[in-house]
């Protein structure tokens, strides 16, 4: 059997009954998407049940304000809760979107996290590559910044 026969047969089949072939291709595509989405859901559930929620959340709960940043009065309220023993600790954090133009047509975007090194992080800190046993509190002193490997590679 020659390869040309397979190509001729497939082409003739598409010309004669293209709707059925198109439907079959759509069904295959939907099936593949279903399998991929089920895998993603499975991985998410696995991470939810086996991961440490406190580490991924940065503590027991996270309070955010979408409409406006927290004011000093808001932070005073959290300090009162800590003094009263209602909460064991809190750490304010601000997130901003930063960008750097490396070339005329190339702009790199990154997230800037502003934290208080005396109180951040409340739970397990990040793993450092350089220095290998780095502590965030020591590295953020004196106006220093800490960047991840992805930003350093850019």
UniProtKB/TrEMBL annotation:
UniProt entry tagged with the keyword Transmembrane: yes
Source organism, top-level taxon: Bacteria
Residue span, MacB-like periplasmic core domain: 21-154
Keywords for this protein: Membrane, Transmembrane, Transmembrane helix
Membrane-spanning segments: 21-45
InterPro entries the UniProt entry points to: MacB_PCD
Keyword Transmembrane helix: yes
Protein name in the entry: MacB-like periplasmic core domain-containing protein
Organism: Thermogemmatispora tikiterensis
């Amino acid at each position: 059997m020659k390869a040309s026969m397979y190509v001729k047969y497939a082409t003739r089949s598409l010309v004669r009954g293209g709707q059925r072939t198109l439907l079959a291709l759509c069904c295959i595509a939907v099936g593949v998407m279903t399998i991929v989405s089920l895998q993603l859901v499975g991985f998410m559930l696995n991470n939810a049940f086996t991961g440490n929620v406190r580490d991924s959340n940065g503590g027991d709960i996270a309070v955010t304000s979408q409409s406006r940043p927290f004011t000093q009065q808001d932070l005073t309220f959290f300090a009162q809760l800590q003094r009263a023993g209602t909460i064991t600790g809190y750490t304010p954090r601000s997130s901003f979107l930063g960008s750097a133009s490396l070339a005329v047509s190339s702009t790199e975007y990154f997230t800037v996290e502003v934290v208080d090194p005396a109180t951040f992080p409340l739970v397990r800190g990040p793993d450092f590559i350089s220095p290998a046993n780095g502590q965030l509190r020591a590295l953020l002193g004196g106006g220093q910044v800490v960047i991840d490997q992805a930003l350093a590679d850019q």
